[in-house]
Amino acid sequence: MAAHIQARLDELGIALPVVQPPVATYVPFVRTDNLVIVSGQLPMAGGKLAVAGKLGETVSLEDGQAAARQCFLNVLAHLNTACDGDLDRVVRVVRLGGFVACAPTFSQHPAVVNGASDLAVAIFGDAGRHARAAVGVASLPLDAAVELEAIFEVR
Amino acid sequence: MAAHIQARLDELGIALPVVQPPVATYVPFVRTDNLVIVSGQLPMAGGKLAVAGKLGETVSLEDGQAAARQCFLNVLAHLNTACDGDLDRVVRVVRLGGFVACAPTFSQHPAVVNGASDLAVAIFGDAGRHARAAVGVASLPLDAAVELEAIFEVR
Amino acid sequence: MAAHIQARLDELGIALPVVQPPVATYVPFVRTDNLVIVSGQLPMAGGKLAVAGKLGETVSLEDGQAAARQCFLNVLAHLNTACDGDLDRVVRVVRLGGFVACAPTFSQHPAVVNGASDLAVAIFGDAGRHARAAVGVASLPLDAAVELEAIFEVR
Question: CATH no. for residue B54?
């Protein structure tokens, strides 16, 4: 079996981010049975926070979507490590949890988190369709605009 | 084995909501092994948001509880699809996650989410007793007052 | 096999809190297959809330960390019950979910939740290293400063 998902990433012009070492006593992912649970990821790019601030205040919908997309790329980088570099071992994306830092008046959380969900489907196809919760929170670590956690089934 | 849970629903006078098709690239539920993970549900009824606004501001405790109850009904409708229409395949409710849109001064989140928890136990009995987290959030999609996600064990 | 984890708790001078009975229709934990899901715990100590208020307002970073630590102790007390009093049956800490009640300007959520994460590793060693999400929320039950939920793999 060829490396389908890697080929799909190449097709989409996506290079996985370099995995960052954990900065605390937690780890980027845990595998239990056939599930990989990935820790909450921020929109870090090149070692820096790419999108800071809050939706409904200083962060536009487009920037929020880009933040969610970047979070998913960071999730994917850790998943890749969990799968020993073979993303074809991913059976499916099970669940994405999207936390959107926002003003109390903001209501477009689904559109923001679609930045991650759409990429999941673009990469994994039907296996990328997942359960999801998207909520608005008071604030996030480092003043990030979005945080994304994920569960995958792997073989 | 008779259809116990359907009979219980009838006894309680509960008709499951009509399942709404997904509006984004996520799906209403995912099954992995013996777990069904249901996406965050809003208090939609008849295609419209039944309870908008925030607890501790414009939404009363009673309306918040009704919203949580409605969320659980929507969860149940998707679970029913996941079980091919046979809710007797539900082994137990594993976890409910309740997000309550509220003012920073609000502190009665458990009472709100009980609107869902009490219904779970009314329908499933001891198998309806679940682990739970209930938190207050800055805002929710469409300005909903409550969002509820759920995990079930099924056979 | 000796009771390693109990010995480790003794070494650390940690006595597990007395388990509180559930106050609603949910339960403190659910076991499904090899996973134990523990309900969201507040920083209760001796039957009272130990740390109330919000980070970035009236609660200091140190008090927030102490709150997260206390939450983990309460998680542990329920896990102990789930394991019939034998914590050596814990295979690993899978995931901690930390909710920090805070001002919209607060950004040190990871440092707060480390109060729980550091204790997990102190007690369980490498098996204590876990996936994690830490977010800031508008408010929590009883005006608690922190709420912590957890998933463990057990044998």
Answer: 3.30.1330.40
